[in-house]
Amino acid sequence: MFQLIYISTARPDVDQHEVGRILGSARRRNHADRITGLLVFDGKRFLQALEGDRGLVEDCYARIRKDPRHRAPVTLSEKEIGKREFGDWTMAWSRVDHIDGELPLAEMVDSLVAQTSDPNTRALFRSFARIDRRAA
Ligand SMILES: Cc1cc2nc3c(=O)[nH]c(=O)nc-3n(C[C@H](O)[C@H](O)[C@H](O)COP(=O)(O)O)c2cc1C
Question: Running DSSP on this structure, what letter comes out for residue 86?
């Protein structure tokens, strides 16, 4: 079992509807390829974990990298894992928003990653959900 985590920057015109379309095709294909994972979008950047058979995950990532709806993908982590950390979802997803300075969806990301066994993976998603976008 192989897991890959990357971060990328969305094209400026990518909105929630477009992310909905991305998720629709992602879930269909991931189901067929037995790929699971988590996609987080903060309105500007994507953070995604993909896991499954190594060859299938690499093919999937190669396809994703060519997708014009985002740019500059940076691989953060690539490793063999004993079992799936995001096994419940063909692609869970979450949007991180600031509302009046609060982070209501940071808790949602926390609950999505709560079951992952790797503290580094958990910390990565949690801190992504808490970056101060106003300072960015
Ligand atoms: C941020 C982002 C995440 C994506 N995640 C996945 C994914 O998990 N699985 C997948 O098959 N395609 C994913 N895609 C879509 C692929 O880039 C590509 O459009 C899709 O695999 C093509 O599917 P189709 O040939 O069925 O239309 C993602 C695209 C973006 C921009």
Answer: S
For ligand 1, residues with CB inside 6 Å are 22, 25-26, 29-30, 39, 46, 48, 50, 60, 63-64, 67, 69-70, 91
Residue 117's pLDDT is what? 79
Residue 126: alpha-carbon gap to chain centroid: 12
CB hemisphere CA count around 2 (13 angstroms): 11
- What's the CA-to-centroid distance between 100 and ligand 1, angstroms? 32
Q: Which atom of ligand 1 is nearest to the CA of 46?
A: 1
pLDDT value at 40 more than 70: yes
Contact criterion met (CB below 8 Å) for 98 and 134: yes
- HSE on the CB side for 26, CA within 13 Å? 23
CATH second-level architecture of 2-130?
A: 2-Layer Sandwich (3.30)
**Start-to-end CA span in the chain (Å):** 35
